[in-house]
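Structure (tokenized):
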């Protein structure tokens, strides 16, 4: 049972209480207000958004998402050494992520999405041996994608989208063997997609759209990611043919998004292997040849966009077998003949 904070606390617990108060002090806006309970009348483990372990009464979870908070994150967060989860998502925190956060060796989940953090991700996080999720989506973070992340062998979700990260994707990301989600949409990444990403055998979602990935092929090695459900590489500068192994990924179910690149060549007939695919977008490329009749094998397909390419010849009559199709866009090609009924 929690006790009043008027009772003397062990030194470690008092450190947690003082650290929480230091975090509160750097928050200027508290819309709801969440910090009304953060006072001396009750034990800090009963404060809103705070959870403690039963045994040691140390803070293990700081859950303050979507509370309308405005301010910066205090370096004292690094003193909450029993923390497993920090969730400050969907607020208006600004300033840098304090380097003291690297002391949180028990951390499993860091969610700072939809804030205004800036600067770089601290480089002293190599001790986060238990970390499973890092979500920094939609901030103003920048710098090159740090290779220190590559040492986080327990990481399953890495979400870096809508920031200002630049430079190339480290080949060492291929060492993140537990990774199931890698998302870095809307950044300023350049260079090629590392061949080493093909070692991410547990990967389910890969999102690298809206970057500046330059005139290199999509690596064949992505065909080794046999659990991949969604592949987003659109709005880059990728060239060459779509690798054949991509069309062997029967696991692809959510979508294959390769639009707005400079891809060339035909769609191979093996595309019929993607029988579980719901969304196929190859629009705004330089693809050519005929539209393969094997597309009719994609019986759960809802969206098919091949617009803005150099496809020619008749539209296969077999496309009328796509009973679940909601959007079919074949515009701006060189197609002829009748539209299948």
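Design, position by position:
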């Amino acid at each position: 049972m929690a006790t009043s904070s008027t009772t003397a606390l062990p030194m470690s617990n008092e450190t947690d209480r003082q650290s929480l108060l230091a975090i509160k002090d750097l928050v200027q806006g508290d819309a709801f207000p969440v910090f009304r309970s953060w006072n001396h009348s009750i034990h800090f483990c009963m404060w809103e958004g705070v959870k403690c372990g039963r045994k040691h009464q140390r803070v293990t979870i700081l859950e303050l998402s979507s509370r309308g908070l405005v301010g910066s994150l205090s370096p004292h967060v690094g003193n909450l050494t029993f923390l497993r989860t920090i969730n400050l998502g969907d607020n208006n925190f600004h300033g840098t992520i304090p380097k003291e956060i690297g002391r949180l060796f028990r951390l499993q989940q860091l969610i700072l999405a939809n804030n205004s953090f800036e600067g770089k991700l601290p480089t002293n996080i190599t001790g986060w041996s238990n970390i499973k999720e890092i979500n920094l989506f939609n901030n103003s973070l920048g710098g090159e994608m740090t290779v220190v992340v590559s040492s986080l062998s327990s990481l399953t979700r890495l979400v870096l989208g809508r920031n200002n990260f630049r430079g190339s994707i480290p080949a060492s990301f291929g060492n993140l063997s537990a990774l199931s989600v890698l998302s870095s949409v809307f950044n300023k990444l350049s260079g090629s997609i590392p061949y080493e990403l093909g070692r991410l055998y547990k990967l389910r979602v890969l999102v690298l759209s809206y970057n500046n990935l330059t005139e290199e092929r999509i690596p064949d090695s992505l065909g080794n990611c046999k659990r991949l459900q969604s592949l987003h590489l659109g709005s880059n500068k990728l060239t060459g043919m779509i690798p054949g192994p991509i069309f062997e990924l029967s696991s692809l179910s959510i979508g294959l998004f390769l639009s707005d690149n400079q891809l060339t060549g035909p769609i191979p007939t093996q595309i019929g292997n993607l029988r579980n695919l719901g969304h196929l977008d190859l629009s705004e490329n330089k693809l050519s040849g005929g539209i393969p009749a094997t597309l009719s094998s994609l019986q759960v397909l809802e969206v098919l966009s091949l617009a803005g390419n150099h496809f020619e010849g008749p539209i296969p009559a077999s496309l009328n077998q796509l009973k679940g199709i909601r959007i079919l866009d074949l515009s701006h090609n060189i197609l002829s003949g009748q539209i299948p009924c």
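Reviewer-requested clarification: Residues 220 and 243 are 5 Å apart (CA to CA). The two ends are 70 Å apart (CA to CA).
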